[in-house]
Every structure is written in structure tokens, then in C-alpha cells.
Write a structure and sequence with these properties.
mainly beta; eight-stranded antiparallel beta sheet; 1 helix; 9% helix; elongated
Length: 135
């Protein structure tokens, strides 16, 4: 696997249309993605003392966190609106190599901070709802 630039790891939000058109959430400095899985144990007396897990079972989810500088873009306004409404929205993560991960997410946290005479920054946390498709 080739080394990729962190600046090419982008968070995009959909416009709510059909088909969905995605816009980059501007001003991101850091972005993190976690794929989470819950194991379902099927260990029994013939397992020889080793734990056995059921493939494809359990709950899977994707968590995204990001931090950046507030720029007032339309994409940031859409994210803020989704956070205030508590609604799901379409999001896409893109990577330098051209891969994407797309799905519906809920904004579970949106924090703003600012210092006198400094930029206004924000952090965001997203949790998936339903399947996340990798392409």
C-alpha cells in the first residue's frame, strides 16, 4: 500500500438531493475514521479451549471525527443544521487513492471554540446509521 497524504482524506456532506451531490466540509485539519465491530461468540465444549466467533454476525458501525477551522462554507452550514435538527444526512469520506466510504450518519457532537484575535475552530463526531459502502 502506497503512502498517502492526510490532506487528501476528506469529509464530504450530501446536499439532500437525488442524486446526492457531495461538497467538502471545508477547513478540516484532522480527520479520523474507525470501523467498529461487535463479536458474537459461538464457543462450545468442542472448541478445544479456544474462542470461536461467528463470521458476519454482530453489529458493525463507522465512527468519524474531525477538527478544523471554521470557514462559513455551505457544507459547514449543512452539517450544523443536521446537528441542530438531530437528523441523518449523507456523508462521504474520500481518500487520495480514489477510494470512498459512503453512508448515512448522525452528528453526535459539534463543538466550536475560539480565542480572542484567533480563528474559530470546531470538532465534529459522526456515527453511522445503516450500511456504509466502500468503493
Amino acid at each position: 500500500m502506497a503512502v498517502e497524504k492526510g490532506s487528501a482524506f476528506l469529509l464530504k456532506v450530501g446536499n439532500g438531493g437525488s442524486p446526492v451531490v457531495y461538497a467538502t466540509v471545508a477547513g478540516l485539519r484532522t480527520t479520523q475514521l474507525s470501523v467498529n465491530g461487535e463479536a458474537v461468540a459461538i464457543t462450545h465444549k468442542d472448541s478445544g479451549g479456544w474462542r470461536e466467533l461467528l463470521s458476519g454476525a454482530g453489529v458493525r458501525s463507522v465512527s468519524v471525527s474531525a477538527a478544523g477551522v471554521f470557514t462559513g462554507s455551505a457544507a459547514e452550514a449543512r452539517v450544523r443544521g443536521s446537528a441542530l435538527a438531530g437528523g441523518l444526512d449523507d456523508y462521504r469520506l474520500t481518500f487520495e487513492g480514489g477510494e470512498t466510504m459512503t453512508g448515512r450518519f448522525l452528528v453526535t457532537r459539534l463543538d466550536y471554540a475560539g480565542d480572542y484575535n484567533g480563528e474559530r475552530s470546531y470538532t465534529i463526531a459522526l456515527e453511522s446509521s445503516g450500511p456504509v459502502v466502500s468503493a
